[in-house]
UniProtKB/TrEMBL annotation:
Record-given protein name: Nucleoside hydrolase
Coiled coil: none
Recorded GO MF terms: hydrolase activity
UniProt cross-references to PANTHER family, sorted A to Z: INOSINE-URIDINE PREFERRING NUCLEOSIDE HYDROLASE, URIDINE NUCLEOSIDASE
InterPro entries, alphabetized: Inosine/uridine_hydrolase_dom, IUNH, Ribo_hydro-like
Residue ranges occupied by any Inosine/uridine-preferring nucleoside hydrolase domain in the UniProt entry: 3-290
Keywords: Glycosidase, Hydrolase
Length: 306
């Protein structure tokens, strides 16, 4: 299965990127950059630098649109660090982004069709733009998005999850027009946790130590904002895992809408229409975390040896 990641490259995006590269059932054919944890430009830079660190310099990166008036929220800077990577400094990337993210998304869906899955882990801005620019995109794209909260509270307001809160109109457009969409939201991602006991296992390799430093920052931030969890949520990596193995989650079929407040809820106007969205409400957390750890350990060791 070919995969495109649409990243606002902060810490859990960095984990999602590594996991996609490590997964034998996924071929990462491109990364598109969006905003959220960091501005678009910094997210693109982070993605390029991480791909070089992970020995995947052949994966192209594309620049997506931003939202007028966007600025990084103080809570995002606290959780992800000023540079989005827990203030861990990576060497400047040796290459630049290759072009426009929306055009790349349109080309990729035309070329690969059902053999491709798109995993947005930030605001829906780029995905909505692709749907608006290419009429066939919504009909043919398979999308597994990290975002939203249906049965649990939001993480920026009592109702809104951070990604949809950034651009609720775009999220609503995607909900209403996508033909094959899975929402992997806080309902399941906050049940999948990583701790320093996990990251300590990475420190036997050079790349693993860098990732451990990045993720330990994230874990410390969670210890302040959400001490009851006992670790950091694996939001974006879980969406990648579901793209590869949908059996990891239990879903309900439900047409959704996104309100201006960022609340994701069933759409009363389409309750009787065939559902085009699956909402993950249960997860095999132990199986997922075990798989993530196994694949990342192998990737960090093999990359460090190169």
């Amino acid at each position: 299965m070919k995969i495109i990641l649409d990243l606002d490259t902060g810490i859990d995006d960095a984990l999602a990127l590594a996991y996609a590269l490590a997964h034998p059932d996924l071929e990462l054919i491109g990364v598109t950059g969006t905003y959220g944890n960091v501005p678009v430009g910094l997210g693109v830079r982070n993605a390029l630098a991480l791909l070089e660190l992970l020995g995947a310099e052949d994966v192209p990166v594309f620049t997506g649109p931003t939202r007028e008036g966007f600025s990084v929220a103080p809570i995002s800077a606290f959780i992800h660090g000023r540079n989005g990577l827990g203030d861990v400094l990576l060497p400047p990337p040796r290459r630049a982004a290759q072009g426009d993210a929306v055009d790349f998304l349109l080309r990729a869906v035309r070329e690969h069709g059902e053999d491709l899955v798109i995993v947005p882990t930030g605001p829906s801005t780029s995905i909505a733009a692709a749907m608006q620019k290419g009429p066939d995109f919504a009909r043919n794209a398979r999308i597994v998005m990290m975002g939203g909260a249906l049965t649990v509270p939001g993480n920026v307001t009592p109702y809104a999850e951070a990604n949809v809160y950034q651009d609720p109109r775009a999220t609503d457009y995607v909900f209403r027009h996508a033909h094959d969409l899975t929402m992997v939201g806080l309902d399941v991602t906050l049940r999948t946790l990583l701790t320093t006991e996990n990251t300590t296992q990475w420190r036997n390799s050079r790349v693993g130590r860098i990732y451990a430093d990045i993720v330990d920052y994230y874990i410390r931030a969670y210890a302040t904002t959400s001490p009851h969890l006992g670790g950091c949520g694996l939001h974006d990596p879980l969406a990648v895992a579901v793209a590869a193995d949908p059996s990891l989650v239990t879903c309900i079929d439900l047409n959704l809408r996104c309100e201006e407040t960022g609340r994701t809820i069933g759409d009363p106007e389409r309750l009787s229409a065939p559902a085009t969205t699956r909402v993950a409400v249960g997860v095999d957390a132990e199986r997922f975390v075990d798989d993530l750890m196994s694949k990342l350990m192998s990737l960090y060791t093999s990359t460090s040896a190169c």
